[in-house]
Amino acid sequence: MSREPVGTSDVVVVGGGAAGLSLAHRLVETGVATVTVVEPPDGPARPAERTWCYWDQGDGDFEEAVTATWPLLRVHGPDGDPLTVDTAPWRYRMVRSAAFERLVHARLARAPGGRLLRATAGTVRDVPGGAEVRCTAQDGRTLTLRSRYVFDSRPLRALPPARTRLLQHFRGWFVRTRGDRFDPAVADLMDFRVPQPRHGLAFGYVLPLAPDRALVEYTEFSRALLTTEAYEAALGHYAREVLRLGEFGVESAEQGVIPMTDARFPRRAGSAVFRIGTAGGATRPATGYTFAAVQRHSRAIAAALHDGRATVPAPHGRRALAMDAVLLRALDTGRIDGPEFFTGLFRRTPAPRLLRFLDGSTSLREEWGIGLRTPVGPMLRTALEVPFLPRRTHPAPGTGENHR
């Protein structure tokens, strides 16, 4: 096979998921850099359609791709009692990956500095003056891309060593009911009225799209995945016995896994090669949310390149990561009861402050106040223990991209 040079651009982004497309859009929109995005061609290499959720204030850059928003969030405690909170000025938002991709692809096509290349990325390496990406085109040709910087969003083959690693794994149904069963203004963020596993925790998750349509999910935080049959059984129990949806049809399904780990993700893979997205540590360890962090990280990277800094800032602050490490360890050891812990956070903390806390934007004083509303003894014991725990290697959980 021949190897052909394919010009140059300031930046090559490998992978066209949430992280790759968000960064490419930010760089081109602000005029910071010319960008080539390398996406796999249609076929088995492209991931199935995914759902990304986040909370935000006002209209964001990708409002045209937002499927639905909810001003109210609800949590059902293990005792069955519901708690509904108004999150104003925040709103919970859903973005479907196909709509997001169409929107960003169209914007890149209109921008003089944007380019989309359908090819399978192979090796990425430093070269004099920048970096090089070798790709295989659909017709078998080997293409070579040169740029000042490469940002690689492809999943890691193995996770970095960690003291704690849990998995957030889930399966969801897009359902249509025979009658109206859902309130489109309220999203059920955590519904603990499901049987709890022996290790970890489980909850239901409901995102209404219309009075008779919703995404209904079963989610676990635990060490091991379930079989598809087990997810289906848990979903069926939740939809029929807990939600009592009556007659309904399943229009489509999605399934995924998100690593929840206190691993240190290296953001640099070479002098001019950087990792972004989950591979670069953008997934919030204790919640699995990624989409909002990706947007903040894209803005920070664009600012760094604009200022001439060849560094990539961390997606999350050290304090947030330290708190997440303690919470993950406390959950993994069973020192705290997961359903009681998360329900208590929503019952005892004003919703806007709690969302800012989960988003990593609270002050030290606010975090101290929230910490005092958690089980202080078990959390303090865990905080004293975590720095002395060894980091061990865990296998990567899979190649699916994050749901949150």
User: What is Rg?
Assistant: 21 Å
The CATH class of the largest domain is: Alpha Beta
The helix/strand class is: alpha/beta
Query: What does the overall shape look like?
Result: globular
Give the biggest beta sheet. 7 strands, mixed
Please, what is the average pLDDT? 92
Number of domains: 3
Distance between the termini: 40 Å
Helix-strand sequence: EHEEEEEEHEEEEEEEHEEHHHHHH
CATH topology type of the largest domain: FAD/NAD(P)-binding domain
Structure description:
The protein is of the alpha/beta class. The protein has three domains: 3-68 and 94-159 and 262-306, FAD/NAD(P)-binding domain, CATH 3.50.50.60; 166-261, D-Amino Acid Oxidase, Chain A, domain 2 (2-Layer Sandwich), CATH 3.30.9.10; 318-388. It is 27% helix and 33% strand. It has nine helices and 16 strands. Strand 5 and strand 6 form a beta hairpin. The longest helix is centred in the last third of the chain and has 16 residues, at 291-306. The chain starts with a strand and ends in a 19-residue tail after the last helix. Mean pLDDT is 92; it is low at 1-5. InterPro entries: FAD/NAD-bd_sf. Its EC number is 5.5.1.19. Pfam families: Lycopene_cycl.
What topology does this entry show?
Layout (H helix, E strand, L loop, with lengths): L2 E12 L3 H12 L5 E5 L11 E7 L8 E5 L1 E5 L5 E5 L3 E7 H14 L3 E14 L2 E8 L4 E11 L12 E13 L8 E6 L9 E10 L2 E10 L5 H15 L5 E14 L11 E3 L15 H16 L11 H16 L4 H11 L2 H8 L5 H8 L4 H10 L19
Parallel strand pairs: 1-2, 1-10, 2-8, 5-12, 10-16
Antiparallel strand pairs: 3-7, 4-7, 5-6, 8-9, 9-10, 11-14, 11-15, 12-13, 13-14
Helix pairs in contact: 1-2, 1-4, 5-9
EC number: 5.5.1.19
GO molecular function, one term: isomerase activity
Keywords: Isomerase
